Amino acid sequence: MMRNLITDVPGILIGNAHDTHVKTGTTVLTATQPFTCGVHVMGGAPGTRETDLLAPDKLVEQVDALVLSGGSALGLDAASGVANALRASGRGFAVGTQRVPIVPSAILFDLLNGGDKDWLENPYTALGAQALASASNTFDLGTAGAGFGATTAKLKGGLGSASMSLPDDTIIGALVAVNAVGSVTVGDGPHFWAAPFEAHGEYGNLGPSPTYPTGRPATKGDGRNTTIGIIATNAKLTQAQCTRLATAAHDGIGRAIVPAHTPVDGDLIFAASMGDVDCDDLLHLGHAAATCMARAIARAVYLARSTPFEDPPCYSRTFS
Length: 320
Fold this sequence. Notes:
With about 325 residues, the protein is of the alpha+beta class. The chain has five helices and eleven strands.
């Protein structure tokens, strides 16, 4: 039974943690075993940890977890909490008698969203450990995890996921924290840019917008941005093929957010292969990845929730 979540890919587990007071959160993807991973960055302002080692020519080919987090560069500490917990459980790359967990991560900027950021001790190490401890095949969407404090140009952002199966028994899933400088909806209406790709009424079944604005698109007034995501599949892929899958998945950001991949976004997508189904059709797998990513982005905003006086408002409060 498909849940329309990235955890429809066998072996994938997702954990969320958030801090209501700080108005931020962290999301962790892990698995029952190390997995092959690639990454592609298309935004002009990324914040990352251990992404260089995901290049196809580097020594380490598999990772133990991936982390998406709020907090800008400060949020990179979430990966330390995950790595500490994994090491304590005996996970990690073997180097002599030592284990070094490989935990690439990416962050979004949510430091100006109204939460109390006047803390003395970085909260993200603990959030990372909490998220890992909660990892499961079911998890919350919308105002959750790395999307807890996220925003877009006009509406509250959030955490989204979607999945689909292909005729050759491969499964593709997307996970995304949407904190874009641009908009996920068209003009001032409720229609999503990703409407043509919607499946089973997952974000309102409104269809495409009857009109499309011209001229300069709506954007945030400052640099508190970035959309970060993960594509996972049960297809058996090399690290180079994962990198190509992550690259193709960026089309989903372009289909769902306007504008996308700007100089003030750090747009990034990881791709993870669990590797038990042969795949001879990377072309259509890449198309499916982009489609799932677009749907996940729309779901993130559609399912977000906010208080009555929060700025920006959530989708359901704006278009109820």
